[in-house]
Amino acid sequence: AQTVTQSQPEMSVQEAETVTLSCTYDTSESDYYLFWYKQPPSRQMILVIRQEAYKQQNATENRFSVNFQKAAKSFSLKISDSQLGDAAMYFCASTGGSEKLVFGKGTKLTVNP
Amino acid sequence: DAGVTQSPTHLIKTRGQHVTLRCSPISGHKSVSWYQQVLGQGPQFIFQYYEKEERGRGNFPDRFSARQFPNYSSELNVNALLLGDSALYLCASSLIDRLAVNTEAFFGQGTRLTVV
């Protein structure tokens, strides 16, 4: 069974600074995908960034980048130049080529002005 | 283009009652998945439907059922409600049945169900 663990229930960062959110996962699948989702108070889950496991190059989307360490089964999210609008719950998720997403428990990110 | 729409947005039910939640996927999307998100937790997979057929089921009791209609909209039904069923129920739609790096699951804003 796939599991996703987020060990930081809460994190805070100063506006314009950089923050890293941690995620580890476990899967028996040989091909799988990893995602970071953002859930603001509006409740809608929004895809932030995604990574295909067989690609060694780390994904980057503007201010968001990941550090994917396949051997360690680690998939951290780095947010650079943090903005007030980045404040939200962040969920790490994985899928093993199946139809479902397996989510971690989430990290609440606070951005201080 | 409209995103994934869910109705109702909020709902209060009594223990033992039945509830039906509805989801309309993005136009052209044939896959609909349902997730339960209990307060303080990440979403848990309940069902996935693709082309009106069940493609996956999570670890939920038989009180939970779903279906998908010819227009690809979907209903989630929960019978004999328990207090523990109180949660945010999220619907997600995608183009195809297998999530991949190039296949994004788009989520609705959810239905907040409270069982009293």
Question: What would your notes on this structure say?
Answer:
The complex is a heterodimer of chains A (113) and B (116). Chain A has 113 residues and is mostly beta strands. Chain A contains no helices and twelve strands. By secondary structure, chain B is an all-beta fold. In chain B, the strands form two sheets. In chain B, strands 2, 4, 5, 6, 9, 10 and 11 form a seven-stranded mixed beta sheet that branches. Chain B has a four-stranded antiparallel beta sheet with strand order 1-3-8-7, with no helix packed on it. In chain B, strand 4 (31-37) and strand 5 form a beta hairpin. Chain B is globular and about 40 Å long. Classes of the chains: A mainly beta (113), B mainly beta (116). The interface between A and B is medium-sized, with 24 and 29 residues.
What's this, in brief?
With 113 residues, chain A is an all-beta fold. In chain A, 0% of the residues lie in helices and 51% in strands. Helices cover 0% and strands 49% of the residues of chain B.
List the helices and strands and how they pair.
The complex is a heterodimer of chains A (113) and B (116).
Chain A: E1 3-5, E2 10-14, E3 19-21, E4 24-26, E5 33-39, E6 46-52, E7 60-61, E8 64-69, E9 74-79, E10 88-95, E11 102-103, E12 107-112
Parallel strand pairs in A: 2-12
Antiparallel strand pairs in A: 1-4, 3-9, 5-6, 5-10, 7-8, 8-9, 10-11, 10-12
Chain B: E1 5-7, E2 10-13, E3 19-24, E4 31-37, E5 44-50, E6 53-57, E7 64-68, E8 74-78, E9 87-94, E10 106-107, E11 111-115
